[in-house]
Amino acid sequence: MPQIGDKMKFKSLILIPLLLTIITLPFLSAYSGPSTQVKATLVSQTPDPVEPGQIVTIKFKIENSGKESTQDAIIALDLKYPLSVYGNETQKNIGKLRASSSGSDAEIVEFKIKVDERAVEGDAPIDLNIKIGDAAVSYTNQEFLLNIQTQNAILEISSITFEPENVRPGEPVEISMRLKNSADTALKNIKLKLSLSDASLPFAPYQSSSERLVSVLPKDYQHTISFKIITDPKTTAGLYKVPLNISYFDEHGQSYSSSEIIAVSVGDAPAVRPLIKKSTVLQSNQAGKLTIEVANPGTMDIKYLELYLLPSPDYNLVSTSDYFYIGKVDSDDTQSEEIDIYINKDVENVLHFPVKLKYHDANGNAFDQQFDLTMNIYSSSELKRFGVIQSSNAWFYIILFIIFGIGGYYLYQRNNNKKSK
What is the arithmetic mean of pLDDT over 206-234? Predict the structure, then answer.
């Protein structure tokens, strides 16, 4: 009957070779049999780097530092997303490997691989298997990597805001920009510079420089930067195009640069005011002329000004049209129109004269405003008291005529009585 010691020796005889096999297994990846020593090397990828959606050609060098193989060598790819074999050729038979075939004597195997359009930037692993009969060599631990890189590392300006929103001449404004990294990798050393050197641009840096630096912007992250500028007090209203120069690097050290345009609209809110400048009629139940004046006390010109007279129970329009085209009204200037009206008899104290103005500011923004113009209405006695109209002397002359008439009649009768006697 076997002793315990014999059993231990028997187990040792089994375990020791097994342990040796496990320990030496990692070193057998380039070995496929007792007579051949096979090794694969990734020689090239074309193009390098490859972009998403492209076809790339990869070449492997298959070397045999041992004896000639007795069976054909099968080279097979095992690809995972975002890679796929272009065509149906997932493996190639390169025949028997010659003995001591290395360097220029090695076999070159070529495959075409398609990169998915949605692939992200980075290194994609290529698994390779070499089979010679029942033996195999596998490269599955990212020994071979395919370099994928997007054509452009995209830095977006997702939004631009101004504070205050209306950029006025002579006042500072803060321009805020939100940057977004739409690339597949982090972007580094991002430099943004407002180009304000052009003499036609009425801007200058205010309380800071015209350049900003962002050290790192990770993938899919956003970051807000701000510039402060001040507008020349003599600036004419309008739209000004400010160049913005951008430069940055991706994680691979590839440099990028671009030029953008920041549109800065300079202007102020219009301050148009209509008014009744003068009138030849100041009381109800009379006709006369009314002068409507439109003043522009603001800092910006207005153009395409239209004046509409709106209906009112207080007056009847005697002029032939209720529409007047005035056109341009410069800053600190006025334009006027004369209108014939009849003030209705029921109007007391105040005449309401509604009008509508339509116009555009210097930047082309349209405005539509209504105003209720008013004017005081007076009685005849008030106008006489104010000296606007003179009191009538008709009664004085009538009384005087009566007195002289009576006196003349008395003298006439007296003279006739004397003659009769």
Answer: 93
